[in-house]
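Anyone else keep sequences and structure tokens together like this?

Example one:
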Amino acid sequence: MLRVGVIGVNGIGQAHLWALRTVDATTLSAVCDIDEPRAAKAAGDFDVPSFTDPSALFASGAVDAVVVATPAGTHADLARRALAAGLHVYCEKPITPTCDEGYELGELARAAGRVFQVGLQFRYHAGYGALREAAARIGALRRVSLIATNWFRPQQYFRASPWRATWRMAGGGVLMNQAVHQLDALIATVGMPVRVRGDVRRAHHEAEVEDDAIAQLEWANGARGVLVASLTEPAGGERIELVGERGTVVLRDGYDVRVATHDPIDRLVAESPDEFPAADAVQWETCDVPRARSEEFDMMLAAHREFAAAIAEHRAAWVDADEGTKSVELANAIYLSALTGEPVGVPLAAGSYPPAFEALVAGRSILRL
């Protein structure tokens, strides 16, 4: 039985507490929070010891692994110390504010022989799984459209937890903390783009971080795409459209996944005998996407089962530190492009983003409407 402690028992930490009590291969063995009353309450609710100092938890011998569910700006330090103590690490998204630190954590985990998993639970989303399966049928990628405006947040979101509004602790706004799930879904489906041009801003919120973003993307084979993400649209939604050489797949609002397949585009363009081909010549197929009321919690359970299985089987987790850093790297590239006004190549050169991040933290580079 894998003994796990949770660091940070507010917010998403609460879901981890319940998940660890639900998954057969794990047991919740300790909690830790700098807020002593909150730590004590969680300890009482789940009948486990509590800590207010992570170092004491790491040295206690009470756990084999920890979940890091604190603000992003604290992740790297906590994860390093946990790995140094010989513990496996499940780190909530985003892994760190900068991809440099994320990839560094991957190297440290491999050197320590420990499993490191990033909490991108939407990898287990049924709709995103159907998107990946359908995308395998449409041939080489030609075009991408990703709209992630289903994340409306009022100002109260930032008032309730002021750290969310800061570059240092949150690492970013909509791209880093909300649409990161769609960035990860895109990367898992079609791979990383090789070039981005970004424009991000604070349109409506009183916050340091961005609440609105748009980016142009380009892949190595010449495929192009557009990404739109926002916290400011009360009637926003989600749509991912992938156009391939042999078809198109569209995901709407998580579960409506449809795919159309056809002969290669070049052949259809060159050989179609009709001047104006009928619009209904292409037939759309609706994918069967199972849906459960508890899917968000089910995704969390699936992620914890994977974490426990990776440890038991002495293998890397599906979303290990390197994989979980890719969405951060894409967000970092968009921020860097927005700051410089120039397109940015991906992968980012080592050390290219941290100076820009520090400028954002210091308020020297302010992105505003």
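And example two:
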Amino acid sequence: MRTAAQLRIDIVTARLLAALAAAFPLHAPTPARATEAPPAAGLLADPAALAGWIERTDPAIAAAAARIDAARADHRQAGLWPNPELDLGAGNVAIGQKERQDVDLAAAWSVGLSQTVELGKRGPRTEAARLRLAAAQEAYRALLGTAVAEARAALGEVAWRAARQQVLEESLALAEEAAAVGASRRRYGEASGADLARLELDTLRLRSEVERNRAALQAARAACDARLALPCAVEEDGAGLLRQAAPLPEQQAQEAEAQLDARPHLRALTLEARAAEADATLAARRALPDPAVRLGYEHDRFRLSNDDPYTLQLGVVLPLPLFDRGTHEAAAARARARELEALRRANARDAAQEQAGLLRRLQAVEETLGLLESEALPRSDAIERAAQLAYEQGEYGATELLLAQRERLELRLELADLSFERFALRNELRRNLGLDAAAAPTSER
């Protein structure tokens, strides 16, 4: 049985614990919030936002970031001094029968510290590591620019397919309306069966095109969702998004050739070539021997003839570079530097040719688009409306109406295709010029 005093103690204890819990609440650790997916339409219109999203989510970019961390660690390691060496020794220990029993032998022990002094090697080794760190950072930027261009291309394909789908569905609605009018006129004997059959056949053909494009749109959407790790919902205004996507500054396009050496993938090759030259310098300096300086202390307890039991030693060990002088390794490093420089020149030539071709094609596409949008499309719309009205009033047959509708449909589809081609060219130019890597937000990399 619990006494009244014990019950009062328990009540006071419970109240005290409740007060402490109220004053110092215990919070469970909150799990880290997952990266929230931004709207895909905003990523397509904003290069910096797209670059930031790819930098956070793309595993290939994470691998490139790990390579930067490894290169940074190598750079720090290259600047370290060699570790000193500690040696301990003992001698004058008798292990057999002594010749003279009146002589008391005692062990002698010693301790020493050696340090290797590098001559002319830490400088080129550290410089090579620094250059490789800079090359890894430039390779990271180049890879980021390529990943952003690929992600934008996936988004652009979804927008293009969506724009085509909108055109096809609008054309299908008009074709179904025309077929309904044809059926009505057929019932009243105002149209022939052949005209109605043409309208119905055109409706079926358009419905088939709508379904095929819808399947292609779904496939592009699935591929884009997987590529960007977010829902690529850009179907509502695909044509408008394509016009805004992949902006290309005019000044950058004009001065692209002058800024060729500033592109990340070319700078990475330049830095790797310079690092190979530093490796050659390091290998050639192997002919300089690295002395090892030793400072030692010895305590000799042999009392028979030892007047100085405590002594210090100072010595130098000098390796002789008679056989391995780093000649072949230096030649290999110089050959590697020449190889990288030749690769840089070849890539620069290819990039310049690609850039010139892209600019010429972009100019031609923009001129064609301007002509079609300003002149051809308004005329086609007017012709289609006039043909529709004439058909409803019985002035046109099905053949004239189908011809006007088909020309308008083909023109609108051509406009959608040209808009996508212009977007693809601008996207490739941004990758070629390294603009997407420059548009990425500043990070620790």
